[in-house]
Amino acid sequence: MSEFLLPNEKDARVRSRNYRGEIIRDAVRLTESQKILGNGLSYCVNTYGCQANVRDGEVICGILEEMGFTATEEMSMADLIILNTCAIRENAENKVVGELGYLQSYKRRNPNLIVGMCGCMAQEPQMARKIVEKYPIVDLMFGTHNIYRLPALLENIMKNDVRSIEVLSRQGNIYEGLPTIRSSRHKAFVNIMDGCDKFCTYCIVPYTRGQQRSRLMQDVLDECRQLTENGYREITLIGQNVNAYGKDLDEGYDFADLLNRVADIGTERIRFTTSHPWDFTDAMVDAIAQRENIMPFIHLPLQSGNDEILKKMGRRYTREQYLELYDKIVSRVKDVAVSTDIIVGFPNETHEQFIDTLKVVDYCRYDNAYSFIFSPRESTPAARMEDRVPIEEKKERLALLNQKLGEYSKMHNKQCEGKVFDVLIDGVSKTDSTVMCGYTRQQKLVNFRSEKGRVGDIINVRITEGMKNSLNGVDVSDERADNE
Ligand code: SF4
């Protein structure tokens, strides 16, 4: 194991006040031999988890294609398979471990198959060690801090027939100008920052993605301008906590400034995720309210509606502060839709504390929500907290919460019936080419029939039926949208 570089918790936890991530431009410079290493070989990258992982997956594909590899959807045909993993909850990890078991059969059929793992599971010290020890089929492992090392690590495997295991635990740098293959031609994710310093007690992200580090505004604007000039109609600004953008830079600008500058570029649809209520300023609410091309949709994680639990979670806001922000947003942003994240069954959460969460849900009546049972993550403080709440009780709470959340999202979707919305077409049904799907400005999923619509078009759709998690509609492009 000594020749392998594995992550360690101590380094992953370090946050030094004056640390500034270096901005490294064009970190991937291929040698002549690396440029042809993938000739005639195919690859498959399976990405799990959040938008940040999707964006990393696009960079990994970009690097592999510069090395001559060709993408294949057919995993059984691939010469290189990379699992780009997520560690946010246990079930995300179980999926990957299950997949590794499955890949054993591929490796038996094709001993030259290279199996790689990257992403947040590779950054978790205990998990990375377990994978390397228990799954010898994993030839390649790298983390969220050294994607640019992929060519050298692959070359080492292919030339020396050894395993390449290199995962760095550190605060992290910013890499600009990395190769990329976008997963869509009409909408794109743009990283505005990486890492997080909030250290919510249940969350593994600060350990797997390092210190919060914002990209320079000019680099973000250049990327957004380039995408818009290339015909992209929707840009989503992504970060673990976008509202903290710029706080780690002494540049005097923040997320509200960035939103306005990106809106000035003129991209038709601008979105952002993920927000943290603690850093959400009035200027940010105003930017969303005043700019036509910033979409009226906000994902505002609550996590719990009880102050004691919020304190144990380290969320740094109270229920009252959260509701004050919520009221500000819905009163200032016209036709806004709000979604959230909620954890039930946090260690020793009482029934009364859970009821407080239900009360906030009754108050906010979210358009959409993601709800989870607390999943202890190794290395996090919450994983070491005493917890006497039986799992059955947690499951009952989740069922009760989901029923309520479902009623409210259906209520909002019912209220859309008869109205016309402009929808960005994302895809075509696999079974019927006239059935398409896309999202409204409020990030509501719509399935509808259209003779003329094409993927990437923005068309007007009249809603015929509101269901719990989606809308049905018809293409009425000759009519005005209700939000025009
Ligand atoms: S703000 Fe989000 S990403 Fe950061 S520690 Fe908290 S939950 Fe995790």
Question: How would you describe this protein?
Answer:
- The protein contains 15 helices and 21 strands.
- It is α/β, with parallel strands linked by helices and 484 residues long.
- The strands form six sheets. It has a six-stranded parallel β-sheet, with helices on both faces. Strands 17-18-19-21-20 form a five-stranded mixed beta barrel. A three-stranded parallel β-sheet has the order 9-12-13, with helices on both faces.
- Bound molecules: iron/sulfur cluster.
- The site of iron/sulfur cluster has 10 residues, from helix 8.
Give the CATH superfamily of the largest domain: tm_1862 like domain
How many domain units? 3
Strand-residue fraction?
15-25%
What percentage of residues falls in helices of 4 or more residues? 25-40%
Beta-strand segment tally: 21
Distance between the termini: 62 Å
Strand neighbour order, sheet with most strands: 3-2-4-5-6-7
Average of per-residue pLDDT values:
95
Query: Hetero groups bound?
Result: iron/sulfur cluster
* Count of alpha and pi helical runs: 15
